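Researcher: Please predict.
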Amino acid sequence: MSTRTRRGVSRARALGFEAHAADVEDREALAALGLAPAEVVVAGELLEHLDRPGDFLEAVKSIVATDGLLLVTTPNAHSLTNVFGALGGRELVNADHVSWLSWRTLETLLSRHGWDLESLAYYRFPKVESGGRTSRMLFNGYQVVATPLFKLRPNLADGLFVTARLG
């Protein structure tokens, strides 16, 4: 477990939260936490960081109640932001990401591991408040100009939000 993870868990506990650290791609490690099965498990902005997302989808079964929900958010491989980045010869991606998912690949991944996609929605990145002034202005301006297109074609938005249940 990284120092950063240990610090984050310690900080969460200091703030009064119940916090744990475990290898989420290891079913035994999750089960060893001794958590009661949850009605809802949130995997927010997680899958794109994992070396073995399928192993996570197997392991998380040990902490989701029989009729529970798995909520997943992940950047959208088909986002308009990615298209514009590619046109500019850049890939706009977090340095910690190891994969991109589209609605189809995410649905396939879930299905292969016994999860039924229940709902699919899209989200846009919020207004950027940090970073260089020019970058902030360009991105925030782009978001304003692209709003009508996102309303027409939500599948071009920045991220995916899905709910899934065990099949």
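Model: The longest strand covers residues 64-75.
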